[in-house]
Structures are given as C-alpha cells and as structure tokens.
Automatic annotation (TrEMBL):
Keywords: Membrane, Transmembrane, Transmembrane helix. NCBIfam families: sss. It comes from Mytilus edulis. It is a multi-pass membrane protein. The lineage of its organism: Eukaryota, Metazoa, Spiralia, Lophotrochozoa, Mollusca. This is SLC5A9. The keyword Ribosomal protein does not apply. GO terms for molecular function: D-glucose:sodium symporter activity.
Length: 532
C-alpha cells in the first residue's frame, strides 16, 4: 500500500508546470481554477465521506489548511512546511473508483453500510461510525439535518451570491474579459464546470470511505489519532488516501501538480485582492498623496502579515474543525459574508439607501458575526460517543450556521450609496468638470541614473550603493524613477466614463448566452430534484 510519491510523480509535476506556464487560459477556466482549490478536495470529499451527497449543494449553488493536510499525508512533511507548497487537484480517476466498487448502484448501497470493522463490533461506537440515514439525499430535515434544507435554500444562497457576484477573487477574472459577451460566456463555462462537482469531489469521497472504512470512517478517537493525528475524525483524508492508493506512479504526480496549480491560482488572487484593498481603500485614507513606491511597500507588507496570520491560525483550525473541514470553512464565511451580500444587493435595487446606513449596517452585522464566531470557538460540540452533555447555548446548538447566515442577512437590510443602484446607473448626475478637475490617468517616466546635489552637480554612485538600491527595489517592487503626470481633457474624461458604464453586446451573442443560461439553470434544477 503506497502512501508516498515516487520519482516519476515528481517528474510529472515538473513537466506539468512547464506546459501550464506556456499555455494561456480562458476566462471560464480561470474562474473555475480560482474557485477550485484544496478546500474542495479536502473539505467536500471529506464531508461527503462522512455525511453523504448533501454537501454537493455547496457546489451547485481555508485554503491554506486543507492544502497542508494533503501534503502532510502525501509527503510526510510538517504542517508548517506544507503551508509553503499547498494545493488542489482534478479528480479524473472517479470512474476508476466507481468501477472498483461495482458501479453507481453498488456504490450507493455499499456506502450506507461502510464502517470500520471495530465499529460494527462495538455498540457504543455504532451510531457514530455508520453513515447518516439521509446520506443519499440533498435536502435534509430543517431541525436535525447537518445541512438543513431551509438553510440550504436561504443561507447558502446568500453566501453563494456573494462568492460568485461580489468576491474580488472571482470578479477580477471577469473584469479581464475582452468584452461583455466574453465575460458572460466565461461565467457560463465556469458554471457548467461546477456542475461536475458531484463526480469530481463528492463521489471520490464516498468511494474512499467504502474502500478504506477502517481509516476514513474511524469512530474511535484513539484509532483516528493514530492514523491522521486528529481525534475528531479522519474523513478529511478521504481524497488524498484515494489518490495515493488507487493511482499508479506518475499519475499521482499529475494529480498533485493539478492541485498545486489550482491552489496557486487561488492564493495569488486572494493575496492580490487583499493587497489592493489594503493599499487603495485603507492606506490612501491616511496618506492621500502616497507615492507608488510607498503603496507597493504597503501591499507587500500586507501580504507578509496575512501569511503570518494564516500560519498562526493553523493550530486553531486543527482543533476546531471537528473532523469535517468543509463545515468549518463555510461556517466561518457565514459570520462575515451575508452582510456584504445584502449591501451589494440593496445597493443595486433600492435607491433610498444611504452611506450612513451602509456603514452602520456593516458594523452591526460585523459585531453580531464576531459574537457568533467567539461562541462557536468557546463552546465546542461534544464528540460523538463521548457521553458528555451538550452545554452549548441554544443559539449555537439549535441554530445552524446556514440559518444564522439568513438571520444575519435580514438584520443587515440597511445601507448603500447614491448613484450606484442599477436603476440609476445611467443617471446624468456627474458634476460639472473644470480645468482643475482633470484626472491623472497615465505617467511618463524619466529615468535617473545619478544622485544630484542641490547645486546641480552629479555625484557618481558606487557599486555598493547601486547593489543595495537594486536589491531594495526588487524586494519592494519599486523603481528609481521620477513620475511626470499626463492629464486627460474634459472631453476625454466624459468619453472614458461612458465607456466604463457600457454593457453593450451583439444581439446574436446575447440570445445564445441567455439561452445557455436558461439551459444550465434547468439542468441544475433537475439535478437538485433528482438527488433531493
């Protein structure tokens, strides 16, 4: 039984990245790659192994930690070393797994009876080690389900709307499209690829539980600790175990390379977005005349701080995830995303929203979300089979995080700014422009090769000074250049604003893309109905 990579796997990884770096990706593939990461393979597959099909609703509607789990098991590295090379992968071997367990019907039947041998012989662990009775259904009880149908339709829809319509990680991909038609087509392609989540994430997790029940379905804390160093459960290892034990040499490396490529794409976008927010939205509030070099330094320092915080947070995640990382991952989002979604939606469709309403709506919702998060980390649910009494407050034990997201969204229905609503996007309310209002849109750079004294004479620069300056510029992303501003005329500014607000597209593209969107919506509804 193989649990490590061979030389052929490392060669495959190197070749894979050599090819990928030479090939461009479409908008749709970029959208999909930005969203697909280690949380999908670790979280979705692991939760499917423990809970069944219902988790696929997240696809149809924690990036660093999950990649660390994958690498910690594959490469036998320490978690903190794994953070440097975390990842995500494509599940091309699902068909092999289904054949191995005897086909789809056999898979669903075997899954319902998959449990560790010691679980079947130990009555006290039996209820904890067996799959849920509703494992093969998406919509589950509103009161006893781990993914209640009411929360799936409300709370998850709100969080999904934020992720796909407002999250800069996804939005910046569509902004890079050539025109509106390409942006819509790329979005539809990304949506079509997401429909495959049932077969690329969920089914492999269920297959892993069937093939390796003593490890993936472990219910005894001591045995779980021995296998995956987590007493809460080992379902998070469903996908990496399946890859390592089912795939031949070389293909294991391809899986790992795909995982690395997808995760690197996601992390690059996340860190870039965070850096942009820190520099353009926060730092400029305090330093309105900050230079480009200063902003570059602030951006890079922000990235370093985020990486350090992420590493420090790893032990907390390891202790709080409760054996199913995906629930932790989405639970964290439920504390902070609903208010952002409501802010965006109300800003589009309600003209009476105000800036003060937007600000205080966000602040109140942020406080409520923080309180819920602190309570969740403070009051931990007793592990199954421990016999301990559940002492959590009712607001924690009775209100699922999907329901909390819906409640928080309702409480946040306030706020927004004038002139950013959908109905007023074409309002002619721009202020009159004067010669003093011209905007800087480009910079003409003038190189400086020497240090100039106040009296105008040039001092030669030593090799040591040039080396130190070049190293500083390389680290901070700055240049030793002076900027001379070039201004736009009033007419050019007006033309640029009209072009920025334009959403024109050809009639043919509009009909084809709208038709494709309708077909995709109907197909999604059919799949949800079939597995409900």
């Amino acid at each position: 039984m193989v649990d490590t990579l061979a030389t052929e796997d490392y060669v495959t990884i190197a070749v894979y990245f050599g090819i990928v770096l030479a090939v461009g990706l479409w908008v749709g593939a970029s959208i999909y790659a930005s969203n697909i990461g280690a949380p999908m393979f670790i979280g979705l597959a692991g939760t499917a192994a423990a809970s069944g099909l219902a988790v696929t609703i997240y696809e149809w509607h924690a990036e660093i930690y999950s990649g660390a789990i994958f690498l910690r098991h594959i490469l036998k590295w320490n978690m903190y070393l794994c953070v440097v090379v975390i990842l995500a992968v494509t599940a091309v071997f699902t068909i092999v797994g289904i054949i191995q367990v005897g086909g789809w019907d056999e898979m669903t039947e075997k899954y319902m009876h998959s449990a560790a041998n010691y679980t079947l012989m130990n009555q006290s662990l039996y209820s904890c080690g067996m799959p849920r009775e509703d494992s093969l259904h998406i919509f589950r009880s509103a009161t006893t389900g781990d993914i209640p149908w009411t929360g799936a339709l409300t709370g998850l829809s709100i969080m999904g709307l934020y992720v796909w319509c407002q999250d800069q990680l996804i939005v910046q991909r569509t902004l890079s499209a050539r025109d509106m038609a390409h942006a819509k087509a790329g979005t539809l392609l990304g949506g079509a690829l997401k429909l495959l989540g049932l077969f690329t994430f969920i089914v492999p997790g269920m297959i892993s539980r069937i093939l390796y029940p003593d490890e993936i379905a472990c219910a005894d804390p001591d045995k779980c600790e021995a296998f995956c160093h987590n007493k809460a459960g080992c379902s998070n290892f469903a996908y990496p175990v399946l890859v390592l034990r089912l795939m031949p040499k070389g293909l294991r490396g391809l899986m790992l390379a795909a995982l690395l490529a997808a995760l690197m794409s996601s992390l690059t976008s996340i860190l870039n977005s965070a850096s942009a927010i820190a520099t353009m939205d926060i730092w400029k509030q305090f330093r309105k005349k900050a230079t480009q070099a200063e902003l570059m330094v602030v951006g890079r320092v922000t990235v370093m701080i985020l990486v350090v915080i992420s590493i420090v947070w790893l032990p907390i995640m390891d202790a709080a995830q409760g054996g199913m990382f995906w629930f932790y991952f989405i639970g964290i989002r439920s504390y902070f995303l609903p208010q952002m979604c409501i802010l965006f939606v109300l800003g589009l469709f309600w003209k009476r929203l105000t800036e003060q309403g937007a600000f205080w709506g966000l602040m109140i919702s942020l406080v409520i979300g923080m309180i819920r998060m602190v309570l969740d980390f403070t009051f931990i649910k007793p592990s199954c089979g421990s016999g301990d009494e559940d002492t959590r407050p009712s607001i924690i034990s009775k209100v699922d995080f999907t329901h909390f997201a819906a409640i928080l969204a309702v409480l946040c229905c306030i706020s927004m700014l004038r002139r950013v609503t959908w109905w007023t996007k074409d309002d002619d309310e721009d202020p009159e422009l004067s010669s003093e209002d011209d905007e800087v849109v480009d910079e003409q750079r003038i190189n400086k090769a020497e240090i100039i004294e106040d009296n105008g004479t040039a001092l030669p620069v030593s090799f040591g000074q040039r080396f130190c300056k070049a190293f500083k510029d390389w680290v901070c992303g700055t240049t030793d250049e002076v900027h001379k501003h070039q201004y736009l005329t009033q007419r050019e500014i007006i033309h640029l604003r009209k072009k920025m607000k334009s959403i024109d597209e050809t009639a043919l593209y509009r009909k084809v893309l709208n038709g494709a969107a309708i077909i995709m919506s109907l197909l999604t509804a059919f799949l949800i109905g079939k597995f409900s």
